[in-house]
Amino acid sequence: MLNLMENMTINFGPQHPAAHGVLRLLIALDGEIVRFVDPHIGLLHRGTEKLFETKNAQQNLPYFDRFDYVSMMAQEHGFSLAVENLFDLSIPIKAKYIRVLFLELTRVLNHLLAITTHALDVGALTPFLWGFEEREKIMEFYERVSGARMHAAYIRPGGVTQDLPELLLEDISIFCDRCYDRFLEIFDLLKTNRIWLSRLVNVGIVSKETAISLGFSGVMLRGSGVFFDLRAHNGGYEIYADLQFKVPIGDKGDCYDRFLIRSFEIFESLKIIKQCLHWFLGSEKQKKMNLPVKIEDFKLTSPLKSTAKKTMEGLIHHFKSATEGIVLPLNYCYCAVEAPKGEFGVFLEGSDASKPYRCRVRAPGFLHLQGLHYMALGSLLADTVTIIGTQDIVFGEIDR
């Protein structure tokens, strides 16, 4: 006979629609109260970090698109920066602006999914339908620069693969204005909705000290009141130091704070995109259009079709880099970027050969998931769904 005074252990996932991927939780319940949460990961595990040691840099880059498959270019950007740091490279200014343009489009892409699927988890369908219409437009921009809607492999060591197609910048400008209005409707729909407030306010509270000790980053850290954004600290990276944007931080550290921060970050990202567009379309527009989008060292990058330097030496270097890969120097570095989900770091160690000696990834979602027990302890079972949604986890980067 079941003793109702004892805790009951149940399975949550991996088939649960609110598990956000192949996540299985073992949850100990005292009635409806959560007493223990044990995340079981590994159902998606591919041993990617070990595979890195068997392939060259060009072959490894597409794997990063598949880590966080909602923030594709942000991941490949982290790896590209790590390779560039190994070589101590400085890429052309136009390539930096193109990168930041698409990195912020990627942040909007990620946060739209995070907020709308979170709303779906707690019973709101309309934001999901509205938000995915805007995401579709961003994925079209991905396709226009790379040929792929998701796994673009557009940002590569040395710059980007190719220049922007004609009229893309004008279309992105139109999108920014419309997306601002569309997301404002989603934000207004949710921010004062009494059901939304009852499900998020005072749920999954994480104090400032606890967020730091658990290794949280990104929205999860800023939601607890910690001002930390790699784009704004120590001069940032790429051209973020030249851009004007705010870093929103939370007060209470609950699920509602994290919803607000993701919402405000969408508005700030649209402002950053506008500043990049102003650089492209402002003064000396034609001159900027003719600037290079990658370094002109064919030992490291493939020559553009339109380049004037179609020399035999360039052809030989291109052939060797395409067939054998870039020879990574006997050096190591750790490079971190402010990905939409938090600090995405790449530790890369060269081997004086084309294949890296070691490559390790710091995925923000992995650290956020291990804090789930603390966040859900003492809450209701239904609140666990809300907490998983506010963590914005994707298992490509966790089960790496």
Topology:
Layout: E1 8-12, E2 24-30, E3 33-40, H1 48-51, H2 57-65, H3 72-87, H4 93-121, H5 126-146, E4 155-156, E5 159-160, H6 168-191, H7 194-200, H8 208-213, H9 219-222, H10 255-281, H11 285-289, H12 312-323, E6 332-339, E7 342-349, E8 358-362, H13 364-369, H14 372-376, H15 381-391, H16 395-398
Antiparallel strand pairs: 1-2, 2-3, 4-5, 6-7, 7-8
Helix pairs in contact: 2-3, 3-4, 4-5, 4-10, 4-15, 5-6, 6-10
Please provide a brief summary of the model.
The protein is mainly alpha-helical and 400 residues long. It contains 16 helices and 8 strands. A hairpin with a 2-residue loop joins β2 (24-30) and β3 (33-40).
Write up what this structure looks like.
This protein has 400 residues and is mostly helical. The protein has one domain (49-367, 383-398): Cytochrome-c3 Hydrogenase, chain B (Orthogonal Bundle), CATH 1.10.645.10. 48% of the residues lie in helices and 11% in strands. It has 16 helices and eight strands. It has helices at 48-51, 57-65, 72-87, 93-121, 126-146, 168-191, 194-200, 208-213, 219-222, 255-281, 285-289, 312-323, 364-369, 372-376, 381-391, 395-398, and strands spanning 8-12, 24-30, 33-40, 155-156, 159-160, 332-339, 342-349, 358-362. The chain has a three-stranded antiparallel beta sheet. Strands 6-7-8 form a three-stranded antiparallel beta sheet. Strands 4-5 form a two-stranded antiparallel sheet. The radius of gyration is 22 Å and the shape is globular. The mean pLDDT is 89.
